[in-house]
Amino acid sequence: MPYPLVATAADAAAILPLVAMLGSLARAAGGTRVVVLAVGLSHAEEATIRAHADRLGLSVELIPFDPDRVADTPLRSPHLSRAAYARLFLPDLLPDRKRVLWLDADTIVLSDLRPLWEVDLGGRLVAAVPDDFILGHELAATGCRPGDYVNSGVMVMDLEAWRRSGAARRALAMLADPTHNAEDQSIINGILRGEVHRLGRCWNFHVNRFHEYPRHLRPRAPAIVHFCGQAKPWREETPFRFVFRRFLPAEFRLERPRVRKSLLRRLDLAQRRVFGLMLGRPKHWRTVHRAVALRAAEWTLRLRLAGRYRADDCPKTEPQGAVPTPDRAPM
User: Fold this and answer.
1) Signal sequence: where (predicted)?
2) Strand runs (DSSP E) across the chain, as ranges?
3) Of the four listed, 4, 155, 266, 289, which is most buried by Cβ atoms within 10 Å?
């Protein structure tokens, strides 16, 4: 089978994460072909992407995407941009392609993508990872069962099946409906209900939600880490920020992390925590347990990236069919 074809989208705000993502692809999945949907990029920004890809030895094609095509679509989440909707146009933008692997620009690839690229969709339109953090009312709006709502940041898409089914046209029609208030991910879940093949969570590990995963759902060997949500590692300190920094070239400077609390406030909180631990207060001990769990997971991944630790292989898929709602108790 040919090398995987990855599609992603980038606007001016996504240049930095895209550069890091391309670096991770070159290291973990060399030979991958990449299509970047360029959403309003300048000639200089496009040249930066091409030059970086050439240095990495990656085959990258830039396809212009006009954001005016989705100018009337909703953007309720502050971390989203119009680039998020570009994936809905892939069946038409890649008319000669049969399959594509979509990756959001804020993902980092840590394993070979061939097992994901070759996954058997079983006649379904897309393969993706369940989203354990979707709110109940959003789940209900899509008609999905618990465990069937997926995150659209990593998707294996059967483009031929999308074209036959008209799924993209239905999604765009829903986006054009002024009475509809869902964004792209919920619309994708709504129109693809029953047409999704569930992947193992290691293929889209939401590192910013580390503490919200039940322990048995935290992958020991994530294949793709996803910095989804508002906190981004190129702007502030986040869990697993070192992974992003590892694949960002030195010439791309990061912003200084934001300091959310003053020094006096942090000293006050530290003092309260020390007294809380001495008095055996559960909330303070839970904070310590969570910090230890995060540091242990980060060091495990550091050792793995350094070649000093080999974890179990990432399972390609999860059992299909109804699954219970995960235990959301953080640890």
Assistant:
1) none
2) 5-10, 33-39, 59-65, 99-103, 107-109, 126-130, 150-158, 196-198, 205-206, 224-226
3) 155
C-alpha–C-alpha distance, residues 304 and 82, integer Å: 35
Closest CA to 185 of 143, 138, 246, 253: 138
For residue range 188-201, list pLDDT tens digits in order. 888 888 889 999 99
The residues with which 261 forms a beta bridge, in sequence order, are none
Backbone angles phi, psi at 301, to 5 degrees: -70, -35
Is residue 77 domain-resident? yes
pLDDT tens column, 33-49: 999 999 889 999 999 99
pTM more than 0.90: no
Residue range of the domain that includes 137? 5-246
Asked if residue 322 belongs to a domain, the reply is: no
Does 327 score more than 50 pLDDT? no
Residue partners of 210: CB distance under 8 A and separation at least 6: 218, 239, 240, 293, 294, 297
Provide the CATH number for the domain around residue 18: 3.90.550.10
Domain count, the chain: 1
Alpha helices (H) along 192-252: 241-246
